[in-house]
Amino acid sequence: MRDFLTILNVKIDKLDLDGATARIRSLLGDDNSSLVVTPNSEMIAMAAEDSELAEILNSAALATADGAGVVLASMIMGDKLPERVAGFDLINHLFSDLEQEDYNFYFLGSKPGIVDRAVVNLKQKYKNLNIAGYHHGYLDKELQEEIIAEINAKEIDLLLVGMGVPLQERFLANNLAKLKVKVAITVGGSFDVLAGEVNRAPLWMQKVGLEWFYRLIQEPSRFARMLALPKFIYLVTKKRFLKN
């Protein structure tokens, strides 16, 4: 039975990294296609004002806490999540866990050329990983249909979609029924990191919840987006203590 915490009307599973990986393994054995999302505080705050996005996130078979802000929110609510399960950490755990098994991956997203470099880097690190195909995420209607046909022809088990929020969520909400995949995972900017375009924060910064600050230093243009974090904490605190 699924065990989750609801934060601002978005369900977040009470699982650590190993538990999330085990859930995906289970989903790979299902007959239907399953959606996996990795909401961070910005996404949950966005979903508080966007009922369509909230509905998509809540339709997922698994939603992990991607960000220290989400774990902090769970503490404010008095129901602490086991740990942060970042989307980037989750997919790398899957690469390592499934490398020796017969599962096919397809990567869809990011700018032209970025996902190509991500694949080159991944094949150097995970030599036995089955990457059956990849394509950038700039799709018009005709190209989108071509990519869906390609994915279906290749019998993909895990489709990773990195188009940014909420485009990637809406893409999968509109197309998952057409896709013959076992599991589709929204991965945000993970392809940029895998390609070496963006660096992750040092491990110590990740552990103390300062990865957002490291990203801000690298990309000052993200400042406006970072304002979503205090707004998110305010909304959670208000809901927790000012219910009426």
TrEMBL record:
A GO MF term: N-acetylglucosaminyldiphosphoundecaprenol N-acetyl-beta-D-mannosaminyltransferase activity
Pathway named in the protein's UniProt entry: Cell wall biogenesis; teichoic acid biosynthesis
Pfam families: Glyco_tran_WecG (PF03808)
Keyword NAD: no
Record-linked InterPro entries: TagA_TarA, WecG_TagA_CpsF
Keywords on record: Cell wall biogenesis/degradation, Glycosyltransferase, Teichoic acid biosynthesis, Transferase
Keyword Transferase among UniProt keywords: yes
Enzyme class: transferase
GO biological process: cell wall organization; teichoic acid biosynthetic process
Catalytic activity annotation: UDP-N-acetyl-alpha-D-mannosamine + N-acetyl-alpha-D-glucosaminyl-di-trans,octa-cis-undecaprenyl diphosphate = N-acetyl-beta-D-mannosaminyl-(1->4)-N-acetyl-alpha-D-glucosaminyl di-trans,octa-cis-undecaprenyl diphosphate + UDP + H(+)
Domain of life: Bacteria
E.C. number: 2.4.1.187
Function statement: Catalyzes the conversion of GlcNAc-PP-undecaprenol into ManNAc-GlcNAc-PP-undecaprenol, the first committed lipid intermediate in the de novo synthesis of teichoic acid.
HAMAP family: TagA_TarA
Family designation: Belongs to the glycosyltransferase 26 family. TagA/TarA subfamily.
NCBIfam families: wecG_tagA_cpsF (TIGR00696)
Protein name as catalogued: N-acetylglucosaminyldiphosphoundecaprenol N-acetyl-beta-D-mannosaminyltransferase
Organism in which the protein naturally occurs: Halanaerobium hydrogeniformans
